[in-house]
Amino acid sequence: MPDIPEGYGPNPPLKLFERKNIFFCRQPLLAGGDYTTAWKTNVSDKKEFLFITVQIEKQGSSVSKAEKQINTVSEKNFTGKIVQHRNWWHRFYPESFISIPDARMESFYWIQQYKMASATREGKIPIDLMGPWYRHTPWPAYWFNLNMQLIYSPMYAANRLSLAKGLLQMIDAARNNLVLNVPESYRTNTMALGRSGGLDMYSPVKVYKERDTSATDAQLELGNLTWLLHNYWLHYRYTMDPQIKKQLIPLLKQSINYYLQLVYKENDGKWHLPYSYSPEYPGGVTRDCNYDLSLLRWGCQTLLDIAPLDPLSSKWKDILMNLVDYPQDEIGLRIGRDVAFNQSHRHYSHILMVYPLYTMNWDQPENRALILKSLNHWHSFKGALQGYSFTGGASIYATMGEGQKAVDYLNQLLDRYVKSNTMYLETGPVIETPLAAAVSIQDLLLQSWSGKIRVFPAIPDIWKDVAFENLRAEGAFLISASRKDGETEWVRIKSLAGQPCIINPGIKGNLKTSNANATIEPIENGFIRLNLREYEEITLYKNGITDFLVSPVNLNNINQLHFWGRK
Predict the structure, then answer these.
(1) Residue 369, by phi and psi: left (phi above 0), alpha (psi -120 to 50) or beta?
(2) Contact 200, 209 (CB under 8 A)
(3) Residue 235, class by beta-carbon neighbours within 10 Å (0-12 exposed, 13-18 middle, 19+ buried)?
(4) Of 461, 332, 465, 482, whose CA–CA distance to 408 is shortest?
(5) Whole-model pTM above 0.70?
(6) Tell me, what DSSP letter sits at residue 342?
(7) pLDDT tens across 420-451, in order?
């Protein structure tokens, strides 16, 4: 396949053998070392136990390690291991809770939570495009121009940030290669990341001020690292951990520094970008690529927020004031200056500023017509749309408050693209799209972007009762809420970091509060400002509400009860 990263040739043939009633599959690796899958069956009290382990060695053989692990575990009392395993899951699931009256969508959401925990654990390597579910694939690597970003996107609001740490650890460990990915002539305090690669993140980029005609489309993807660092930033924003911010700042600076070495001014006095590629769009090599303009703007804004006193702050401000406007025409946002959007395209690379960056958003009345026009035009071309085209569209509709349209998009995903086991398949298996759909469901219930939290911002009219507990918001807030008969009853907010809280609780009428000493400052459009200390909690509720427990809601269609498993 032409999309396989350079140097990703096939590994040597695997070797199958048996020793001392243990079966082995040893896979030598071109990169050095091997990994071994070992398994053994024990029969006890008419029960059959299958023990499996996978071990890896970067140098030498992992066979002896696999054999030792099988023998160690299988000789022990397995009952204790089962209890330990179940206890882990019993701790995992209650980290957050949602209940919606659509059984299929609710069941789908919970299976995505299961997938996340099955695919990685704290301290483990990041999830690839398949996770642990093997099938022949044309994509045997990490993909950095959407897939990795979407894979990790549902972990933040779901309050499962321990699972997301592996992504941060991979980026931190790959700093040297991220520098080497930049052309040597620009390799001064810069970083970049190409389309795809391995755990070491070595994937060179070849964007110059003057176009290198030998560069492939993949090598012209300039913004992939910046977008991946958006996930790093989300991890910071959802935890407000100062150590994560400290680690992020030099990474984001170096990613943006590559842009700063490439921008140039024309007669209009504006900063422009040279030729780069908008991921996946056929013929998408263009100057002033909207994919990169979006990421450059977001990067400069974010750096000014988290490092306002940095010596480069004046340069970031200059970029924000004088960067060329997003190329657009009468039918919406273009791919870039030289390329119109005029054919079907599954990727939303040209509207990244709308979602997930939110630097252009529905709170800006001057941009609403452009956002809606661009979304409609994107989906007017049907041929190349795929599953994540509908998750992206659903989340954009959710930011508009269009809950029914968002649900319609999600139902198209479930009807047309998701398999009977909730997995997703294009040419090969890809795990990111169902996980991205979990984000779109979260966006119906809770949104936090541009420093504001929105509770039940996009609930379709048919969903009269909805509840959730401990969904996490930017600023490190745990939010719980209940909605009955189409109205929000109460919202509970717990601050984990003592940050200012701007929230629209969506409660009609006069707000009641569990904290008589709390200061509630009305702002506008239903938003209020709360000042909560670290670990302080407050409940906002409407008059007459006395029950503040989160309970599962009734289904709209009882016949859906067993969709994708028991409720």
Answers:
(1) alpha
(2) no
(3) buried
(4) 461
(5) yes
(6) -
(7) 889 999 888 899 999 999 999 999 999 999 99
